[in-house]
Every structure is written in structure tokens, then in C-alpha cells.
Request: fold
Amino acid sequence: MNRKIAYGLMTLLALGLGASRAWGEIHTQFTPDTDGVDTDGNGDPNDDHVYLHMFAGDGFVNMADQDRTLQYMFGFGDATGVPDEMVMMHGMLAAEFPAPTIVVREGQKVYLNLSNVGMMMRPDLFDPHTIHWHGFPNAAAIFDGVPDASVSIAMGFTFTYFYQVVEPGTFMWHCHVEATEHMQMGMLGNLYVLPKQDLLPPGTPLANLPPGKGPTHQQGYKYCYNDGDGSTYYDVDYPIQISSFDPEFHNASLTVQPLPFALMDDKFPMLNGRGYPDTTNLNVLYNTAGDEGYGEMNRPSQKVSSLIEATRGERVLLRISSLSTTSFHTLTVAGIPMHVIGQGSRLLRGPNGEDLTYWTNSVNLGGGEAKDVILDTANIEPGDYALYTTNLSHLSNNTEDFGGMMTEIILHPAE
Amino acid sequence: MNNRSNTMKFSKLTLALLLVLASTGSTYAIDYYLRAEAVNKVMPDGSMIPMWGYALDPDAVQETGQVIVPGPTLVVPPNDPNLTIHLKNRLDVATSVIIPALPQAMTPQRFPAGDPDYPNRIRSLTHETPPGNAAPVPYSWTNVRPGSFMYHSGTHIAVQVQMGLYGPATRNAVDGAYSADSDFDNEVLLFYSEIDPIAHARIASGNYGPGEIMTSTIEYKPEFFLVNGNPYSLGDTPIPAGQVGQTTLLRLFNAGIETHVAQLQNLRGLLLADDGWPDNYPTDQYTFVLPAGKTKDVLLNPATEGIVPVYDRRLRLTNANASPGGLISLLEIAAAPPAVGENNNEVQTAPRNVPELATLAQYWLQNCQGCPADVNEDNIVNFIDFALMNNLNESPPEE
Amino acid sequence: MNTVSIRTRTYLLLAALIACILANAAQAMIMTIRPAATPGGLEFNLSAKQGYILTPDGGAYYMWGYANGDGLMQYPGPTLEFNQGETVTIHLTNQLDVPVSMVFPGQLNVTAGGGTAGVLTNEAAPAGGMVSYTFTATHAGTYHYHSGTNPELQIEMGLFGAIIVRPDNQPAEETWAYNHVDSQYDYEYLFLMSEMDPTIHEKAECGMWDQIDMNEYWPVLWFINGRCAPDVMLPDNTPLLPHQPYSCRPQVHPNERMLMRLIGGGRDLHPFHHHGNNALQIARDGRLLSSSPALGANLAVSDFTQAAAPGMTLDCIFTWTGKGLGWDVYGHEQDIDNEPTGDFPGPGDVDHNENGSVDNVDPVAGEDMEDHGKPFPVQLPDNKALAFGATYSGSPFLGAMGDLPPGEGGMNMFGGMMFMWHSHNEKEMVNYDIFPGGLMTMMFVEPPGAPIGGAHTMPMGQ
Ligand SMILES: [Cu+2]
Ligand SMILES: [Cu+2]
Reply:
């Protein structure tokens, strides 16, 4: 165990949070579904409650440049299924970027447990953390995760968030404690809600299904929203989250220097926590932290690929969100038009059925914005396409060219 | 092209021409011969910026066109939606041309797997044109929809677009910009772009790339902001933009890397379309957000004559920090013609017949330098082609 | 609210205590200036002046701003209010030593009188020059004005402000933003956003004009209505901020409609994220998003983040009810003395209000009846496991106060729920290097019956 880690653990112990006692404090909550009502519409009245367990701590990720620049980060990881007494150890230096993707279904009740495992590399910090379900409708402050307006969970403890999920759509989640810092440091991820319409009885008429799919709903059909007409049908969906790192900020955090908030300037633009070409790698990426003396092993820290694959004729739903802490970004797919069908977790439709969806070739998102984009590949030639930012200077992994905020779309020929 | 008002006449004229052609059973596909080449551009402060631009050549052989930034306006006729750009490359590096907003079969080119710097990465979004190619490399689009589009380099886009390899392309529907609902009398293009002089100098002098002084564009810092290739300078002549009682289609393009916001003053406009996609419900606005790479079409219907300033509300209104400058355009709305002249509109916008075209062509041939050799009064088709490419008006062009 | 529980008593008492400091709670919540109407229309007298603003990081920055008559320079300039159809003339007197002007984007047929022609409009000469602008507001809505002279510098220096045009056809008993009931609101708030690079102001103060490079622009301060958080929470006209009279303290009761008037006043886009609920964007650039007047705001779009572009105005309707939470947000039928058990009532539960049911309380107007009486779903950790926010009431329930450790919470008198409204380019939530701050405020959902503070329309001084 290297010295920095040992120091971190010692601090935890000194605080009385270490060893068995502290780990005993990790106490997750879950209430089984016994109400006998099938609230998510899947036919089973006893499976509507969802148990999730995330931890918040720190870790490392590599950037996509050839040098594999290692960046210190704060982040979340998945502890669902990990015994409570093992969570502190499980979360040590195991943060992921982006945070684990949360996918739930409309009608479910989510018990989202957050355990604060502390920041191993920053034993001087005692930061609490929260979960902000960004865009949750009619939120209650207690579960909104804004530390100023509610509570946040201290190191070594667990807070259970509860969400009755009433709106389908594309949201996002992140920590809201010292939001500029914790989000720049990486505490953010994808979150989306599947609509009940997916579970319609087969044979239900839907007037606007794609050609060849109608005129009725069939088992396995998927929709972005409860559109009532099948117009948001998709074959494959991909969350695409814009984010970016400022290496100066991350290095300052690691070396306990004053944080350069005012000078924050992101140099590693990313999609789903990776720059190009890592975006196209289907594998879980292990960091090089162990090799570089931070902890005993290289950990799986970047789990979300952004490689998009579809077969010609399919509809590809891109659930695009941005959690950049610094700037707006514009994304385009050269050669494939975009049909924007939703934004802000809502179907684009007026009160009298007005079609407020629109076609375009690029979408522009600031931090905290989400847009649902369908790529209809029916008239697109099979081949490789690029999804990339038109803020072309962000096609860089810092000082390295041909990187940054870009991924590839592989469109296979129809059989 | 800064001071030129492009009018609908030519699309109507094209319509007339096409009617003629259709009656004789001819086919007509629009082909443009573009040449990518380095060019220097002088800024208002006297600084010389090395850029890469496009020239419009008359055919596959001659290289007589002038290299300009932005590139020439490529007009796709209403009745023939098939476009081919034949590209010649007179740069030192491979290049290509894409129109991101149009469906196009992409054939990306990658660095080799053994490349020390960028193994396997896409370097070009579609097939490349090598430097010094003798035969132009074609890039084709079928069924181009009506709209305003941007073409630009598809190769090493972080560098080549910034260097100036971009230009506008437009197509009208037969009866208006998109349909009869968006018919218009006059047309104005405002094409925004940016220059980071340091990056240009380094790229042009071979000081960009792995191991060089500059290795990526991440430190982008533009100093000049161009409308139709030139930053605003005090005293610039206003752009004729139609008259009271007529409609003007304002085509907005942003080839810059930053978002700009075109703000109209003393006038509002109907936002018709985004990237050449008409909106289901046009909205009445005075600000038009132009993220990088975006095009928007706005229909103006001025009720009063006078100057309508259009400027970047992101306040990129300087030339290397000298004020005023940058993204300012002054549109001039002329007074309505006298009541007795009500017929003027019809006269001006009615389809022209071939003799009229011939007269116009003759006028142009006398005044036109650099007209391709096969553009002459005997070859009206080539003239129309040429006119379309260059957005010629009846009045002489201003240089 | 006609129900009194042990919790509501708490805040009613508090309400009584502070009733004396809150007046005209139902008035317009945006401070504006509006001169008396004359047959020739309205005449505003503004001047362009210099002064200093204060920021929470301890900064004092040299500014240029518009002032109401001979008043103090303001950042932002005075919010001008008039009615649709009224003809307004704005007389601008320039007390700066550079030319200055005003432009009115989105307005038609603005005529300038006096001054000398500049690039965008007529300008008032330095040191006492005058110019006048006249136009008729053809449409209701939210607009803005700014200097048309070297706008890249003068907007940065503070020369911009908001305009509110009231509709000409709203019912007497209601408040509408536009001529359609879809724009009806109970409270309205202004969110005029801007940003600042202090180095420009420092150089301007010293007259080092040739040192100012707009291409080096690097904002480190971000504002709503001319104030950085947390100063936005100070009252309107606080003597602490003499040049920054406008607060941003949005408050609303459940089920009421809040009109958010968003304006991009600076030069950057800001993604304005409003916690608590989506809002319906009903108007853009001073026009209802409508395909035909009879259909109202039928093109309105719901979102949780509003992309406020510079120059653009957005009007949004925000409503919060707590509907669909799956638990009773008022804590009805829950034992405030004991931890929620999930199987209420449990042993030891008490009938506090002695109505025969254990803590049974009548529903409140606008409450989601689906959730009435449903228990709070989880157990909150011990206080030792928590950090507490300054605007946390101590209770998860609306209208309830809970025990807080000494020195925690407190900025929440009525048991409201607070939601952060902020730029989600989170970098903009700092004041220089200090977090939190910047383009941020706290929105209060106050329990039914709790007072909502406000500002008044000030009569013009001349
Ligand atoms: Cu955190
Ligand atoms: Cu958020």
C-alpha cells in the first residue's frame, strides 16, 4: 500500500470511521413492493420497487491521448449488491467516469442509496456528497440533492433517496455538493426513464410507427416517450453525455493546491467520459492508477463506450445530455440528419397535438440540457459516420489532435 | 461578395431555363469545379492572413477561378437536385469536401494502425483528394433538399475548416425557399467565420503537428470575425436587402468554431429553417442563435425603409481588438416604389424568356473578367450555369 | 389555508412577526420605473453614468450604467415598464466621457432624435450630450435595451437593462404577460443574466484603454439582475448595494404560476437550470410561442434548463405542486415526534391536534390527493451523518420545521422548500475563485398561506 493511501486510511480510522465500526454505519434501505399494484405496468405487481446503491468517492481515469494522461477525479461507482460492510473497501479509489448509468422505468419506485466512502487521495477533505436527479419533476428538496436546501451525507454514512418515477425521458444525475468542483471532478452520469408505452399489449394500434412496423405495437417495440402514436419508436438507444475536464483543476485537486475556479478551462472534451478514439472502444477501460503508484491496482474506471452501431433501416435514439461545467457544445453527425423529438425529458408536442419535433443537423447543449435525437437510417448508405462537436477546436485531447469530443457510428447494411 | 444582394431572380431565371430544357428533353445536372488552394487575405489592420480557400473553375482542366474565402456560393437549381463537386487540391495536404447537413455516403479515411501518433483514427470523414491531383475527385449528392447549407473540408476538420475551406450552398424550391409559403423577393447571405491568426501562421508555415510548436487547436483564440469573408470596417457600404413591401430571405451561416447570435435591430424576422430543415411553425424573433456549423433561414418583411443592423450579440465586434469591426452587417431596406409602379414587382420577378437571358448574358460577357471560355452568347446554358455559381446580378459585381 | 397543525402554527406565528416588514405582497414582484402617461406618451429620462458595484468576494468594480434621471448609476439599468400601444420616448443624457447610446432590439420603428449618427444608432456626445429615442410598443412582452456604441465594451461596462411591456387586453383581475390566458401568472420575477471580466473594469477605471483586449475576455463574475449570489437574496434597494437595486428572490406557493422573465443581458449563453420542476417556455423574443392567437401558447416547450442566449428573451411559466412524489409532501398523518416507520400509525404515535386521528390533517389546496397521508418512504440518517444546508427547514415536509443542530439552517422561516436556480455551466456559480456564488439564486416554494415578499413599482421621480 503506498503512503498516500495509508494516510487516507489512517485518517478515516482516526475519525472513528474506519475498520468495522465505520463500515457498520453503511446502512442501505429498501422497502419491498407489497402494495399489490402493478405501478410499472409490466404485469408483476410485486417488482415495482428498485434497489440501487451507489458510492461516492475518488479515483482515477485516463484520457484518450497517446500518453494516457491520468486524471484524479471524484466520482460515483456502483455498489448495488455489495454487502453493506464491504462498501467502504469496495469504493476505495473505485470511482467511475461517467458515473454508472441509471435506467429505470416509469412507475417504479427507486430506493437509491448513496454511501460516502471518502476521498482516499484527499484525506484533508471531509466533503459530503449528494445525488441530484437532474430534471426530476415536482422534486422535493430533501431528495433533490442540493446541499444548501437539504442535507448531504457525510463520509462513512449512507443516505437513501426515494423517487417515485412518474415521467419518462432523458435526465442526468450528478453530485450537487460544491457543484462546480465536484462536477468538474467527475461526479456525473447518465440517467433515463423508459416509458410505460414499451409494455403496451401487443396489437395496440399506433398510427405513426415507422414504415414496416405498423400498424400496431408489438412485443419488444421501444419508445422514447408515451407518444400515443409510436412516433418515438426506436430500435437502439445510446446515452451520449457531454463532459470535459480541465487538467489544471484535476492536478490542483490531487496535489492539494488552491483550485483554479476562475481559470477553469476544459482541455479534455469527452463523450461519456472518454475522448476520441477511446469513445469507440467497446471495452471497459482500466486506469493506470496502480501502475503510477496510486493504489494497488489498475481499476475499471471508464465503462461507457460511445460506439454507435445500427443496421440500415433502424432508428437510433441518441439520449444526448451535457454536464460540461464550462461551456455549450454543438454535436453533429455529418451525413445523417437528426430528428429532435424531445428535450428536457418531455416529448416535443403541443397541447393540441402540434408536432413540435424538428429536423436539424446539429444540436447545441449547455450544461444541464438534454435532447432526444432520432437518427433515421432508412435512407442512409451503410458505412462509418462520425458524431462530433462542431466546436472543432474540441476535437483535441488537450495538446493532441484528432481526438476529443467525437465518436463513430457504424451503419451495417440491411440483410 | 460582401456588398452584394443576391436576388431571387436567378432562381426564377433558372426555372425559366429549366422549363426550356425540360421541353427539349435535356437533362441538366449541376457540376461545380472547385479547387482548394492557399490564399492570403488582408485584414483591415493590414495584417496578411494565410488561408486556404476554394476557387470556382470553369471545368476539369482550367484553373482560372479566383481563390476566395468563403468559397463560391453553390446554387443547386430548383428542378435538378443532383449536385457534384469536382475537387482539385492545390494544397500540400490531402483534403475533401462534405456538406454535413446533407445525407452523403461517407467513406472515412483512417490513419494506419501503425501510425505513431493517431493509430486507426479517422483523419478524413470521407474520401480524400490528394495534393496535386490532375483529374478532379467527385463528391456527389443526390436529391439535395431545398435549404441553406454549408460545405467545408471533411479532412482534418479541426485545422482545414478553420483555415478557410468553407462556403455556402443553397437550393430553392420551385415556388419559394421551401414552398410557396416561403416565397421571397430578395435574398441576402450572411456567412460568418473566424480567424485565429496565430494558428493560421503556424499551420501555413509547417509549425503545426506532432512535435511542432502547435500540436492541437485546443488553444483556439480568434481575433478576426468575418461576414462573407470580410470583417466590418467603418464606412462599409450597406448591403441592399430589398424594399418595403417585399420579402427578403436572410440566409445565415456560421462556419466559425464559436457560437454567434445574429441580432436584428429595428426589424424582426420569421425563423423559417434550421440546417435546411423547415420548421413546422416559424417563429417571430430578433435573435438567431448560430452554433458552430449552423445555418438558419429567416424571412424578413420590412415595413419601413432604412438601415437594419445585424450584429453578433456575442459581441465579436472588433478587428484584432479595433472597434468597430467584426460581425456587423448593415442591411439597407429601400423605400417602396411609388404606388403607380405597383407592377414593378411582377416585372422584376417574372420568369424571363430566353432572349432576355441572352441580353443579360451579353451584358455580362462584356463586363466579366475570368468568365470561362465556353461561357458565351452561343452557349446560354453555360452562362446560366456560371451566373448561378457566382450569384451574378444585373449590376456589376463589387470587388 | 384553513387547517392548523402544530407545524403550521409555527410558521403562522413567524408570519405574524414579520408581517410588518412585508407589504403589498400581491404587488408586482419586479421593480420597474414607469413615468406618468401624458397625451404624447411616456417620457423616460435616463442618464449614462459611472459608479461602482460590489461583489460578494469583496470586489468593487468600476462600471458604466444607465440611471433613472439624476439617480445613481445602476447595474443593470432601470427596468422600463410600459403598456402595449403606448408611445415612449427615452431621453438619454450622457455623463460619461465617451459617446453612448441605446438600442431596443425587438422593437420596430425606433426613431432617434438628436445626437450624432453612430454605427448602430444615434449617440449622445460625451459630457452632457443628449439623444432621444421614440417608439411604440406594438406587442406585450419581455425585452431589453443596451448601448449601441461599441457594444462589446459598453455592455461589459454595464450599459444594458430590461423592458417589460404589459398587454393591453388582460382582464382587470388578472395578470398576464401576453394577451392570452396561457400567460397568466401569480408572481413574476426577472432573471437578467450577465457576466464580467474584472480586468477590463480595472483598466477602464485607470483610463488604460489601449490595454483592454476584448479578445482576451475572460469572465470570472456572473450576475442575475446585476448581483452575484448570494447578494441576489438581499432585498431590492438594499443600502448595502447602492448601485445594484434589483434582487432575485423568486418565491411561489404550490400550484401557483410563476412567470420567469429571462434575458441574456451579457455576451455569453447561460443554461439556466431551475430545480424543482420543468417550466413551460411560452414566449421568445417578446412573442408568445403560438401558431395562432386563439390557440394561445400552443407552441410552448417544457424544459428543465432554459438556454438563455445573449440578446434573447424567454418567458416561462413555472408551477410546483409536489404531485407524484409518492409520499405526502405536507407530512399529513405522520408523527413528527417519531421517525417515520412506513407502517403508520405505530406505537407511541400522538394525535397532536386532537382531531381524533393520529396527526390527521386536512388536505391543502393543490395537494396531490393520491399522496395524501402516504408515509415518508425512508428513514433519514442521524444528524451526525449529515451536513445541513442554510435553507433547510430541518424537515422534509413542506410547511414543517424540524430540529437542526445549533447554527445550522435558519434561512427558511416558514418551512418552505428551496430549490437552486442557477447556470448549469457550473463554472458560472463562483465569484472569482470562491464557490458558491455567481449566476445563482434560491427559489422558495413557500407553504400555502406563508407570506411572499415583494417589491413595488416605483413612481418615477420626475
Ligand atoms: Cu460530491
Ligand atoms: Cu444538474
